[in-house]
Amino acid sequence: MDRTQILLVGLPLFLFFSDIINLFSPSPPPKPSRHNHVHPIPQPQQSHLQQPLDFPIQKQSGIDPIGVGPIGAGNTVSIDFCTSCSYKGNAVSVKNTLESLFPGINVVLANYPPPLPKRALSKVVPVLQTGAIIAITAGDQIFPRLGVTPPQLYYSLRANKFGSIASIWLLSNFVQSFLQSSGAFEVYFNGELVFSKLKENRFPGEFELKELIGRRIGNTPML
User: Where is this region: Disordered (predicted)?
Assistant: First the structure.
């Protein structure tokens, strides 16, 4: 065998026997660990004679200086709004704002109805709606019994029953909603009108209401 063959055979045998020796040989003892002894830094002793400083107690928000109670107690704000105009969300938002600004205040929400003529007409619209739908669907039996000649509009509507009924339904609902709406958002403080959307053609602002209500609360005589 030449040197190359001896090296290829002997090297694996050497590694094999060295692994066996290391396997059965005892492990060396662990090295002692060094502990860093940290000396505590002495803290200055607090004097037991030190007394806490007394600060004046600040006035709580929403309490009057006399200490009677919440600044809004005994006052009522009424918000009359148009329910069919989807103003309820605005009214609830204003209610929450006033109750947070003036604790103890009573905020009442109510519907502001439209004028009497509009309310009367809004009651007639559903009747006309129902009559038109019945005439389109069963007019061929109703008109002969009444002895009335159907108008030309009846034949035009009957040619497309589904479209005619849908159009009458949407149109009547729109007209009824218009007649039932007042467009009002009126704010009263203890029965006194302080803001009117019917006059201003806009909604009140948060700072505007705060000033209007706060000024009147300040002028309210204490009971």
Answer: 28-50
Q: Residue 85's domain spans which residues?
A: 76-114+182-219
β-sheet with 76-81: strand ranges across: 106-111, 76-81, 185-189, 192-196
Tell me whether residue 161 is in a domain. yes
To the question of pTM greater than 0.70 for the whole model, the response is no
pLDDT 10s digit of each residue in the chain, 223 long? 556 555 555 655 665 556 556 545 555 555 554 544 445 555 555 444 444 434 333 334 444 444 456 777 889 999 999 998 989 999 999 999 999 999 999 999 999 999 999 989 999 999 999 999 998 888 888 888 888 888 888 888 888 888 999 999 999 999 988 998 999 999 999 999 999 999 999 999 989 999 999 998 877 654 4
Mapping DSSP to helix (H, G, I), strand (E, B) and coil, where does residue 108 land? strand
